[in-house]
Amino acid sequence: MLHWSIESRELPLRFTWKISRNASDAKTNLLVRVADAPTGPAAWGEAAPNVRYGESPGLLLGQFAALQPELSRVGSVAELGAVLAAARPAQALRFALESAYLHREAQRQGLALPQLLGVPAPAAAVPTAFTLPIMAPEAVAAFVQEHGLGRFALLKVKVNQEGGLELLRALTRELPGHPLLVDANEAWRDADSLLCFIEQAGQLPGLNVQLLEQPLPATCADDYRYLHSRTPWPLIADESVTDEADFAAISRQFHVVNMKLMKAGGYLNGIRLLREARAHGLRTMIGCMVETSLGIWSALQLSGLAEVCDLDGFLIVRDEPFGLVHEREGHLTALPQLPQIDC
Hints:
Oligomer: single chain
Strand content: 15-25%
CATH topology of the largest domain: TIM Barrel
Order of helices and strands: EEEHHHHEEHEHEHEHEHEHHEHEEE
């Protein structure tokens, strides 16, 4: 019989994490443990609940408690999948449970996780984007200097309608020509106002926008189809692709798909989403929530399936607890195997 447990972990952040719909100075994530005994060697998975998908730490803790009797009797990946399919927990919890179990399986079989999953091994050093939250334009120069942002080959900028243009102006003044990914988190409400913003931004000297992530709500499919051939900045689907997607429809709205394991609900479904996106001619990206290096380590295991990686979530955490991933000159290096984590 397997022994499962869960605990919450408060994660103070290095700076205020502000996006178009909310702001926070700390996050509460959950750590799931699975082992053959109540104490001793164990495998772990991380859940980063996200309010955008109706998730909260309390909800996930309650769902885990309801699932625990079934989980203790799981004897295979297929059995775990059946339990989760029947219960339909929040996707972040589903990922934590599946990843913990698969980490245990990799350890038990003496395999690297990509071998177990049948995916390419990650590169020795994986480039990541780094994200600037929404801030006052006059704060940008100090933020860029304090965090040494010039070392990242791609910078993501969170924007909203009210201050997005001035934020881009300030960043471009500080780092002219630097490749940018603009992320609006569904801040705009219609295609025409977005195109007006893009036109205004395009006049900023030195602006170099490579990608535009989810500028409108996921419900605005007609607007996205209208934008698809009109925007000079390729569109990334984030909130529009969670654990399921009609990729024939998505390919008429977007150019890139951002798969996050926390919204895909697991490695296995995440791999499926990335492969289906590619099969429909879409470029692929792997993103993250605010996570410890445990969650980022997990995402890096699938990085061989992605063109773009945006895996800076652990760099936002003030006192990252595990040290499973290290960043140098904008590149991430992960430990080849997960050690036994003492939480």
